[in-house]
Design brief:
Domain SAM-dependent MTase RsmB/NOP-type: 201-518
Distance between the termini: 75 Å
Region (Disordered): 1-20
Protein name: NusB/RsmB/TIM44
Shape: globular
Structural class: alpha/beta
CATH superfamily of the largest domain: NusB-like
Number of helices: 20
Radius of gyration: 25 Å
CATH topology of the largest domain: N-utilizing Substance Protein B Homolog, Chain A
Number of domains: 5
Binding site for S-adenosyl-L-methionine: 295-301, 318, 353, 399
Number of strands: 13
Bound molecules: S-adenosylmethionine
Helix content: 40-55%
Active site: 452 (nucleophile)
Length: 518
C-alpha cells in the first residue's frame, strides 16, 4: 500500500477533526472556495448568502469578502507559488487542504496580515477542516512560501520564473497579473495591441469594484438616491458618467428603502450607459410605440429602459423561466411618486400588455406574458424566434449572452472557469440574436447590440459580419457612431463602437454598437 500523501485523500476519511482556533472569517472564505471548487458555485451569490446567515463583526465580514474574492482572482498565481514550495503538483494536494493553502498564500502575498499569523491561522484552518494529518505539510509549505516572499520582496516575475517581458510580453503579463494567457491575448486584441493599456486593464480586474446603484427614472432621481444612501450611513458619490448612477464605497445597498422598493437597483454604471445611449437615439419615421429587450434576464436593463422610454410598450424577451421571473420582479415595482418617500405606496404605472399593440400580439407567445406592470410585458421565448412581427419595433436592445470577460472583477472565479472553446458557440448565437434584432426593428428604428465582453469575436466581428451578410440579402443597416450618444464620457475608442473599460471608466467592459435599419 502506498503511503497517503500529506494532505492526501485519506485525510478526509479521518474522524471528525478536533475543534481549533480557526477564525470565522477564514472558515467562511474556505467554505466558499470549497463550494466553487466542488460544485461550481458562484462566489458572488454564495458569499452574501453565507454572510447573511452568520453573526460576524463588520471587520470579519470585510475580511472574509476580501479573502474570498482576492483568493479566487489570484488562483493561478497562488497555485503557481504553492507549486514552487510544495514539492508536488498542487492539483495532487487534497482539495480541502489546497483551498486552505490558497487562502494562506493569498494572505502572505496580498494582505497586511503578518506572515506568522497567516501561517498559524491557516494551519489552524487545516486542522479544523481536515484533521491533524496534513498539518505538518501545510505548515512547512507556508513557512517556505513566507521565506521566499520575504527573500524576493514578493516579486512575482522572479518567484514564478515569468517569461521576460521583452521575450514574451503576453506570457509575462499572464503570470504577473494572474490571468490565463488567452484572456491576456483577448484584452490586447481589443486594445489594439497596446500592451501598457492591456496591463492596466488586467490590473483593474484585481481591484475591488465599488457597488453602483441606478436611480430608476420616474421613480427616484439621482440626488434623492444619493441623499437616501448617505442618510443610511453609506459612503455614496454620484457616478461620474451616468446621470442615474450612485457609487457606494461599501456597505450593504440591500437595506436601502429605495432599493427594497424598486425605485433603485444595483447596476453597473456601464450597463446604465449603454441603455441610456440606445434611448437617446432619435428614431426616423413614425413610431410603432413598441420596443423590445431581446435578452432581458434578469431585467436590470429592462427596468432602466422602461423608465427612459415611458411612452413605449417594452416587450422583454427571455427564454429561461427563472430569469423571466426575475425580469418580472425587476419591473413589477411601485410607480412614480412626487416624493421618493411616498413612492412605495404610489399608484401603479400603466399596465403593459403586448396584445393589440402594433406588431406585438399576446397570442403565440411561448409561455405568455408573465408580468405586465408598468409599460413592460415579459415574454418567455427564444430571442431568435420571438413572437413579434418583423419590423414592428422602434428600438431593440440585444444584450446578448457572452463570455462575461468584461466583468471579471465582479466574478472572481470566472477567469479560470471560462475557456477559449466557449467563444465560438457564443459568437454564433450572438450573430443569430443580432440578426433577429435587426429583423424586428422597423426601417428608421435602432438596434443596440451590447456585450459584457471586450472579446473581438463577440463584439466588432459579430457586428461587422452580420451587417455584411444582411447587406448581401438587401437589408440595409447603417452603423451609427455610438460615441455621440454618450457625450461627456471620454476615451470610448476609435468608434463607431463604444468600448468601456474598468481601468478607464470604472465600469465593466461593456461594448455597444448602435445600428439603424434603413
Ligand atoms: C447578458 S444577459 C442579459 C442581461 C440583462 N439584459 C440585464 O441587464 O439584466 C443575457 C441573457 O440572455 C438570455 N438568453 C440566452 N439565450 C437566449 C436566446 N436564445 N434568446 C434570448 N435570450 C437568451 C440569458 O438567459 C440571459 O438572461
Amino acid at each position: 500500500m502506498s503511503p497517503a500523501p500529506a494532505g492526501g485523500t485519506r485525510a478526509r476519511q479521518r474522524a471528525r477533526p478536533p475543534a481549533s482556533r480557526a477564525d470565522p472569517a477564514r472558515l467562511l472564505a474556505w467554505e466558499v472556495l470549497r463550494a466553487v471548487d466542488e460544485r461550481g458555485a458562484y462566489a458572488n451569490l454564495l458569499l452574501p448568502a453565507l454572510l447573511a446567515g452568520r453573526q460576524l463583526s463588520a471587520r470579519d465580514r470585510g475580511f472574509a469578502t476580501e479573502l474570498t474574492y482576492g483568493t479566487l482572482r489570484a488562483l493561478g498565481v497562488l497555485d503557481g507559488l504553492l507549486a514552487t514550495v510544495a514539492n508536488r503538483p498542487v492539483d495532487e494536494v487534497d482539495p480541502p487542504v489546497r483551498d486552505a493553502l490558497r487562502l494562506g498564500a493569498y494572505q502572505l502575498l496580498r494582505t497586511r496580515v503578518p506572515a506568522r499569523a497567516a501561517v498559524d491561522s491557516t494551519v489552524d484552518l487545516v486542522r479544523r477542516t481536515s484533521g491533524e494529518r496534513p498539518v505538518r505539510f501545510a505548515n512547512a509549505v507556508l513557512r517556505r512560501l513566507a521565506a521566499r516572499l520575504e527573500a524576493t520582496g514578493g516579486d512575482l516575475a522572479v518567484l514564478l520564473a515569468a517569461p521576460g517581458y521583452d521575450d514574451d510580453p503576453v506570457g509575462h503579463l499572464a503570470t504577473v497579473t494572474a490571468h490565463p494567457r488567452w484572456v491576456v491575448e483577448t484584452f490586447a486584441a481589443a486594445l489594439g495591441g497596446d500592451l501598457a493599456r492591456t496591463r492596466a486593464a488586467l490590473a483593474a480586474d484585481d481591484e475591488r469594484p465599488s457597488t453602483h446603484l441606478v436611480a430608476r427614472p420616474g421613480l427616484i432621481d439621482r440626488d434623492g438616491l444619493l441623499r437616501a444612501a448617505r442618510d443610511a450611513g453609506l459612503a455614496a458619490e454620484p457616478g461620474p458618467w451616468s446621470p442615474y448612477a450612485v457609487r457606494l464605497a461599501g456597505g450593504d445597498p440591500g437595506r436601502l428603502p429605495a432599493v427594497l422598493a424598486g425605485q433603485a437597483g444595483v447596476q453597473d454604471e456601464g450597463s446604465q450607459l449603454v441603455v441610456a445611449a440606445l434611448s437617446r437615439v432619435a428614431t426616423v419615421g413614425t413610431d410603432t410605440g413598441v420596443s423590445v429587450d431581446l435578452c432581458a434576464g434578469p431585467g436590470g436593463k429592462t427596468a432602466l429602459l422602461a423608465g427612459l422610454l415611458p411612452r413605449t410598450r417594452l416587450v422583454a424577451v427571455e427564454p429561461r423561466a427563472t430569469r423571466a421571473l426575475l425580469v418580472a420582479a425587476a419591473v413589477a415595482r411601485p410607480a412614480p411618486a412626487p416624493d421618493p418617500a411616498d413612492a412605495v405606496s404610489g399608484p401603479a404605472a400603466a399596465v403593459g400588455d403586448a396584445a393589440g399593440s402594433p406588431g406585438a400580439g399576446a397570442e403565440g407567445m411561448a409561455g405568455g406574458p408573465v408580468a405586465g406592470r408598468s409599460n413592460v410585458v415579459v415574454v418567455r421565448a427564444d430571442g431568435r424566434a420571438a413572437p413579434l412581427r418583423p419590423g414592428s419595433a422602434d428600438r431593440v436592445l440585444a444584450d446578448v449572452p457572452c463570455t462575461g470577460l468584461g466583468a471579471l472583477r465582479r466574478r472572481p472565479e470566472a477567469r479560470w472557469r471560462r475557456t477559449p472553446a466557449q467563444v465560438a458557440p457564443l459568437s454564433h448565437l450572438q450573430r443569430q440574436l443580432l440578426a433577429a434584432a435587426v429583423d424586428l426593428v422597423r426601417p428608421g428604428g435602432v438596434v443596440g447590440y451590447v456585450t459584457c465582453s471586450p472579446h473581438p469575436a463577440e463584439t466588432v466581428e459579430v457586428v461587422t459580419d452580420v451587417v455584411t451578410r444582411l447587406a448581401a440579402r438587401g437589408v440595409g443597416v447603417s452603423v451609427l457612431d455610438a460615441r455621440e450618444y454618450l457625450p461627456g464620457v471620454p476615451d470610448l475608442g476609435d468608434g463607431p463602437f463604444v468600448q468601456l473599460w474598468p481601468h478607464r471608466h470604472g465600469t465593466d467592459a461593456m461594448f455597444l454598437a448602435l445600428l439603424r435599419r434603413s
